[in-house]
Amino acid sequence: MSTVNQATPPPAAARAAMKKELPEHFKGYKHVWVFMELERGQVHPVSFELLGEGRKLADKLGVELAGVVVGPPGEATWHAVAEAFAYGADLAYIIEDPLLSDYRNEPFTKAMTDLVNSYKPEILLLGATTLGRDLAGSVATTLLTGLTADCTELDVDADGSLAATRPTFGGSLLCTIYTLNYRPQMATVRPRVMSMPKRVERPVGRIIPHKLSMVEEDIVTKILGFLPDGQSAKANLAYADVVVAGGLGLGAVENLQLVKNLAQSIGAEYGCSRPLVQKGWMPADRQIGQTGKTIRPKLYIAAGISGAIQHRVGVEGADLIVAINTDPNAPIFDFAHVGIVSDAIRLLPALTEAFMRRLSPHNRDKLAS
Amino acid sequence: MHIVICIKQVPDSAHIRVHPVTNTIMRQGVPTIINPYDLFALEEALRLRDVHGGEITVLTMGPPMAEDALRKALTYGADRAVLLTDRYFAGSDTLATSFALSQAIAKIGETFGKPDIVFTGKQTIDGDTAQVGPGIAKRLDLVQLTYVAKIGVVDFEAREIAVERRSEGGTQMLKSKLPCLVTMLEGTNEIRRGMLDDALRAARSEIVKWSATDAGIEDLMKCGLRGSPTVVKRVFAPTARAEKAARIDTTDKSPRDLADELIAEIFTRQPSMEHELAFNGGA
Ligand SMILES: Cc1cc2nc3c(=O)[nH]c(=O)nc-3n(C[C@H](O)[C@H](O)[C@H](O)COP(=O)(O)OP(=O)(O)OC[C@H]3O[C@@H](n4cnc5c(N)ncnc54)[C@H](O)[C@@H]3O)c2cc1C
Ligand SMILES: Nc1ncnc2c1ncn2[C@@H]1O[C@H](COP(=O)(O)O)[C@@H](O)[C@H]1O
Predict the structure, then answer these.
(1) Do residue A148 and residue B130 have CB atoms under 8 angstroms apart?
(2) Do A204 and A255 share a domain, yes or no?
(3) ipTM field
(4) What is the secondary structure of B205-259 as a DSSP string?
(5) Which residues are within 8 A (CB) of A166 and not within 5 positions of it... i.e. 6 or more apart?
(6) Nearest ligand for residue B186 CA
(7) Residue A298 is part of which domain span?
(8) A209-225: average pLDDT
(9) N or C: more exposed end of chain B, with fewer CB within 10 A?
């Protein structure tokens, strides 16, 4: 994407048509790859979301879908291979090496660029996590190819090019970006932007092992330690089924307790709009939106949030959005499913109580039977 | 000690409006600011200078008016400003941007002394890719330290640096070597108020202005549009949702009644939810 001279669509489109001629040596680049992100033995769910998208792209192109697993020797790494198949991969590339046990840019970049140069994919997708973004940037620069960050939609056009759509200018516009004349076409996607595909137990596909051509002495950066996040930060906001969030409309830091109470009573996660983080009322990892987390819950309750575009882009994937706002013209009512023009400070406690009544053990027994 | 920090002048997105018909950004009258994420990097650089002494060079690539952003950086206390400006850079994507900036950093190294640390912000608010930092690191063969939350001990003699780096699910404690490229995480510090002396100096300072040739760039094919593998094919506005929110009528209703009504509405729309919540909640 152009960072100096954005938003000049007509000449850009003309240029896109003009420049489209893939050099001969890139014509052999085939198949869609998904980088399987492994962190401390766990596959990041964004990898499954990407396999779901990758499957669609591969089917449209009539090519294969591969999961790429790089990690330390052992069970967790092989588990990631099995998971790649369960979520739709036809084959998997694997590099096992002790140097790949914790993420460091140097060995991971080496592993990925070697794989690309050896097996030549046309599309390479990574999660837009801290790891994925760190890695994607250096892999793309090493390969001198294009990389489109934080895509919200991926498609292939008539001539088989990847059309990667992403928000620009804080979500006020979307743009579709092509990588001309270079391969692979690389893109990152944030967790929860794409839906989770169905997991299907299926026979293991082809596995192609590869070696890491690097030794510890080649790696400048050393890991001294790792400090897992504390309780608050463990919040799995992005993957919660129900999220309750508060905004500036709550007026005072004490009133956040009303949000937390409601969340607790229904086993939900809680979050907030950006100004609350800036005020220090909530930790940064509770922020929802363009510069915070993207969420995709079944139910999202927003109290005292105006619904600015930067907030909207983070919550649009929710199945049901309920907005509580005193201003009948607040933009949030343009994308919420259910709106209630009311004072959140009075309604939130009432809502907590009403949920408790309705979900009381007595009623719970009735539901269970 | 010599630190180079890359900043970008961006439109203040709080003021951006999209033209309803043409779907282009209406830039007229939109104030420009230093990309907010870059200020965390600048402050970190200033803190290192507070402790170790040395010099800070700010670098930007952009149109001539990007000079304003550089002057602003000088008022915060940066020592020197370099503006990389040339029509050949127009239309650069992240690969072409990181190429031009890395060439300019090499030239800064030859002219004013090799940098020990190159800083960038985590990302820009207009490009918003977080790729330019890693791109520069790769091109200059610098160690890449992204999402740095804290810089620990920097030993300029032993050429070592310790940082805390944000990663998924926790913080990595890393030890690495100088020279390196650091992208700073947001919220890690707060930019200082510039001193009057610096403001006066900033107004008087000569800004170093380099064209592509001045920066020693020989291969113009790697710059701007021609050096950019990606192109923007189409720009469009997000589609608005067809129907507006169903409003719950609030006239003459107590919060209790409203709450019951809202919950009934939720469970009508999401029937499986009642069962799930009953067994999740702390109720
Ligand atoms: C580069 C950039 C990135 C950004 N990223 C994000 C992001 O990731 N996430 C994000 O959320 N924002 C983000 N923002 C900020 C965003 O533009 C808005 O400023 C922000 O979302 C507004 O927060 P708010 O809705 O809580 O506050 P406000 O806009 O002030 O809205 C408060 C709302 O509360 C209502 N209200 C007042 N009193 C009550 C009451 N008693 N009961 C009920 N309602 C009441 C008001 O009617 C109003 O609608 C970003 C901005 C920029 C420039
Ligand atoms: N034109 C530019 N001039 C100077 N620095 C830039 C420029 N573009 C990006 N950067 C730096 O690279 C970082 C990441 O930018 P981006 O990849 O656009 O999100 C920014 O925070 C800046 O520090």
Answers:
(1) no
(2) no
(3) 0.89
(4) PPPEEE-TTTTT---GGGSTGGG-SEEEEEEEPPPPPSSPPEEPP-TT--HHHHH
(5) A1, A148, A149, A150, A151, A152, A174, A175, A177
(6) 2
(7) 231-368
(8) 96
(9) N
User: Do residue A57 and residue A192 come from a single domain?
Assistant: yes
Contacts of A338 in chain B (CB under 8 A): 245-246, 248, 262, 265-266, 269
Q: How many distinct structural domains can be found in chain A? A: 2
- Reduced to 3 states (helix: H, G, I; strand: E, B; else coil), residue A239 is helix
B174 touches chain A (CB under 8 A): yes
> Which tens digits make up the pLDDT trace of A256-279?
999 999 999 999 999 999 999 999
Position A43 in a domain: yes
Q: Do B38 and B121 touch, CB atoms closer than 8 A?
A: yes
Whether this model's pTM surpasses 0.80: yes
Whether A228 and B169 lie within 8 Å, measured CB to CB? yes
User: From CA A112, how far away is CA A292, in angstroms rounded?
Assistant: 28
Torsion sign over Cα B139, B140, B141, B147: negative
Statement to judge: residues B115 and B17 lie in one domain: yes
Kindly tell me if the per-residue pLDDT of A17 is higher than 60: no
Partner A contacted by B149 (CB < 8 A): no
Question: Touching check for B37 and chain A: CB below 8 Å?
Answer: no
pLDDT category of residue A2 using cuts at 50, 70 and 90:
very low
Q: Whose CA is nearest to atom 8 of ligand 2?
A: B8
B86 within 8 A of B214, measured Cβ to Cβ:
no
A225 touches B: beta carbon within 8 Å: yes
Which residues surround ligand 2 with Cβ inside 6 Å? A 3; B 6-8, 35, 37-38, 59-62, 94, 97, 101, 120-121, 123-124, 127-133
Q: Is there a single domain that holds both residue B133 and residue B272?
A: no
Residue that is last in its domain, among A184, A218, A252: A218
State the CATH number of the domain containing residue A13.
3.40.50.620
Residue where a domain stops, chosen among A194, A218, A242: A218
Residue B234 lies in a domain: no
The mean pLDDT value for B130-159 works out to 96
Give the CATH number for residue A270: 3.40.50.1220
- Testing ligand 1's pocket by substitution, the residue of A326, A329, A342, A347 carrying the most ligand atoms inside 8 A of its CB is A326
Residues B37 and B146 in one domain: yes
Collapse the DSSP code of B138 into the 3-class scheme (helix H, G, I; strand E, B; otherwise coil) and give the result. helix
Whole-number Cα distances in Å, A273 to A88, A174, A282, A287: 36, 22, 9, 6
CA–CA dist A47, A68 (Å, integer) = 10
Q: Which range marks the domain in which residue B266 is found?
A: 240-283
Per the structure, the count of domains in chain B is: 2
Average pLDDT over residues B256-266: 94
Residue nearest to atom 18 of ligand 1 (CA): A308
Does A63 lie in the same domain as A191? yes
| Cβ–Cβ below 8 Å for A340 and B258 | yes
Is A182 within a domain?
yes
Lowest mean pLDDT among A18-27, A71-80, A85-94: A18-27
- Residue A82 and residue A120 share a domain: yes
Q: Is residue B232 domain-resident?
A: no
Same domain, A65 and A213: yes
What whole-number percentage of chain A has pLDDT above 90?
78
Q: Quick one: B244 and B220 in the same domain?
A: no
Residue A5's pLDDT band, with cuts at 50, 70 and 90, is: very low
Q: pLDDT at position A367, please? A: 60
